[in-house]
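Model it.
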Amino acid sequence: MSRVKYSNKVFRLKKAMEVNLNGVPQPLTFTMGEEFHIVADVLYMNGFRAMFQKPIIDWIEANPNLFVDDTRQF
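Modeled.
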C-alpha cells in the first residue's frame, strides 16, 4: 500500500492563466483565486473530482510560486 502525499491541501491560484499540460489535448484556462483541493491525493475543483488528475497535480508541484497555500484547519 502506498502512502498518501496530500491528505488535505488547498492551493489557490494567484492569477488567471492558460496552461498547456502534458497529456492534456488542449490548453486549460484557470481563473484568479481558483482553488485546487487535494484530499487523499485526489484533486477536486469546484467540489467535483477533476479530470486530468496527474498533469494538474504535477503542474502545481512544479510551480509553487503560482499558488497560495490556503489549507484550512477546522
